[in-house]
Amino acid sequence: MRIYTDCIPCQIRQALNSIKMLTKDEKLINEALKKSLETASNFSSYENIFFIYKDIQDIIKKIMPDADPYKVFKEQFNRICMNLTDDLKRLIQNSNDKFEMGLKVCLSGNSIDVMQGQKISEELLKRAIDSSLKQKLDNSKIKLLKDKIQKAKNILFIGDNSGEIVFDKIFIELLKNEFLKSGKITYVVRGGPTLNDATMEDAVLVGMDKVVEIITTGAALPAAYFPLCSEEFLKYYANSDLVISKGQGNLEALIDEKKDIFFLLKIKCSVIAELLQGRHKVDDIVIESMNRN
Amino acid sequence: MRIYTDCIPCQIRQALNSIKMLTKDEKLINEALKKSLETASNFSSYENIFFIYKDIQDIIKKIMPDADPYKVFKEQFNRICMNLTDDLKRLIQNSNDKFEMGLKVCLSGNSIDVMQGQKISEELLKRAIDSSLKQKLDNSKIKLLKDKIQKAKNILFIGDNSGEIVFDKIFIELLKNEFLKSGKITYVVRGGPTLNDATMEDAVLVGMDKVVEIITTGAALPAAYFPLCSEEFLKYYANSDLVISKGQGNLEALIDEKKDIFFLLKIKCSVIAELLQGRHKVDDIVIESMNRN
Fold it and tell me: How far apart are CA B252 and CA B272, in angstroms?
């Protein structure tokens, strides 16, 4: 994927947000910002935005070693989402089409854009879910996904954010109880702390490990970007016959892949809308599949 | 004013938006972005954010000489706002308190944040005005401003954006017709194209020159930042006994001034909320006066 210039100011904003969550020391903040700007100024020599992201995060790690800027935030977000689990499960059980409602709940977990500076609260989350559940999805894609899930042997479900992982768990439990035939689901988290993305720690906190096998991408990156992923992840990927990919980062990383991939996400910026060739607009909640095989 | 690190990613975003409005040539866009990042990386050696802004805009001017990125946008925005003039004047004339309603209309002109990438339309503008008019203002400040306007000899009204200048004109006409006693208003526009800010061209387009005397700051900057303003502007400023300042940029430039200044603005970012010591939050529409004399 080429580097979109529109992503560069966001990389700077993310770097600044990350360091400011770790320290109030202006000298350290200034140092991280200065070095991030210098790194980003070489953007045209990079192959991919994820390498820029990595180099900028490495600057922050060097200044504040072993720190996970979003640790407290992620734990809070997971707990707020877990509090909603029973209500959401009831909503699915009482609906006319459990698969569709389960999928919508799963999608709604991607609908809050916490990275753009919103403070999280149960009220904000409920509003985001409500508005997400009201959006119309492409019925033929829902049907296709259901069909593929029922036929699949090895489903690789690549997660995105903390909090959102709770919604993924609700959907995956529904699939296991009512829609999977002989297929198996493996859930993928990030290989280390990266923004507010779900890691093994989040998976264990929300109990995803009690439901399915969990692996990591092997990379502390907000996307399953192959050149930085582990051999183990690549093997699971190769052996899967259906991939479910949550969120923007995974879409950016996987969009050119020749495989059966369903992308579930809320479109949060114009770069992603452009990547999807203008079929959707910013704030849309979508299921996309490339249907390449 | 110290430089807030939070302003740096916005400077990069603005630079990118500006160059992309001028050209589709990726080489030129990349060059402008690279140089803007390099310039911004020296932020801690700058005295003020406006010098950073100036240096970054100079980069764009060097790459695309004599071009005003927002020219077309500004003209469209002015015309959309002019279309609403009769309705807004009627609203004021039919209200119980014409001064308050006129002031609210004037403030509502600052309520759309076009610099954050929203596309402008009459519908969007109407919604922004409606929501702005519904916000509660500090009654004691309204009364104080009215009182000061009635007593003032030389009012300096420092404008902000194109489009918004139409709303300023409606308020200024109301003041001239019903509230000014012996006082005179001078309206200030920017000294040259700078973002979507109003310049002499906009003032003439909307007919502000038919209503009051117009001067410029002498600087192509989105704020009346004294170290870069003309002698003429500074003389008018010194001779004024009341200043009305619209928008965030002017607030940033004038906040530490020892003079009777009323700041009218919508708060669009956390830096400005912080500058006002947390008395308001982002998205509030406010009248602030420092009451220093």
Answer: 8
**Residue B116 touches partner A, C-beta closer than 8 Å:** no
Chain B nearest CA to A279, separation (Å): 19
- Determine the angle formed by the axes of helices A7-22 and A26-40, rounding to 10 degrees: 160
pLDDT at A3: 92
What are the residue boundaries of the structural domains of chain B, listed by start?
Answer: 7-63, 71-289
Q: How far is CA B272 from the centre of its chain?
A: 14
- Pick from A258, A197, A185, A259: nearest CA to A223: A197
Tokens of B222: 């989105």
Start-to-end CA distance of chain A, whole Å, equals 21
Domain covering B71-289: architecture: 3-Layer(aba) Sandwich (3.40)
Structure tokens at A232: 């183990």
CB atoms within 10 A of CB B171: 25
Tell me the sheet residues that pair with A26: none
Which of the four CATH numbers 1.10.1240, 3.30.420, 1.25.40, 1.10.8 does domain A7-63 have? 1.10.8
Go through chain B and tell me how many residues it has. 293
Identify which of A33, A224, A71, A251 has the alpha carbon closest to the alpha carbon of residue B11.
Answer: A33
Cβ-based neighbour number of residue A221 at 10 Å: 24
Note whether A6 contacts B16, CB cutoff 8 Å. yes
CA-based nearest residue to B116, from B249, B266, B268 = B268
pLDDT value at residue B187: 98
Say if residues B157 and B244 touch (Cβ distance below 8 Å): yes
Q: How far is CA B119 from CA A17, A127, B164, B197, in A?
A: 27, 25, 15, 16
CA distance linking residue B29 with residue B18, whole number of Å: 10
User: Smallest Cβ distance to B9: which of A9, A29, A34?
Assistant: A9
Residue B6 forms contact with A (CB below 8 Å): yes
Pairwise CB contact (< 8 Å): A37 & B33: no
- How far, in Å, are B51, B91, B173, B246 from residue B85 at the CA level? 36, 10, 12, 19
Tens digit of each residue's pLDDT (9 = 90 or more) over B114-146? 655 556 788 888 988 998 999 999 999 999 999
**Dihedral angle over CA of B12, A16, A255, A157, nearest 10:** -160
Angle at A131 between CA A125 and CA A136, to 5 degrees: 140
Query: What is the C-alpha to C-alpha distance for residues A173 and A186, in angstroms, rounded to an integer?
Result: 12
Digit-coded pLDDT (tens) for B221-271: 999 999 999 999 999 999 999 999 999 999 999 999 999 999 999 999 889
What number of C-beta contacts closer than 8 Å exist between A and B? Answer: 63
How do residues B66-101 score in pLDDT, each as one tens digit?
Answer: 788 899 889 999 999 999 999 999 999 999 999 999
Regions of chain A where pLDDT drops below 50: 293
**How confident is the prediction for chain B on average, in pLDDT?**
93
Distance in angstroms (rounded) separating the CA atoms of residues A65 and A52? 19
Amino acid, res. A289: S
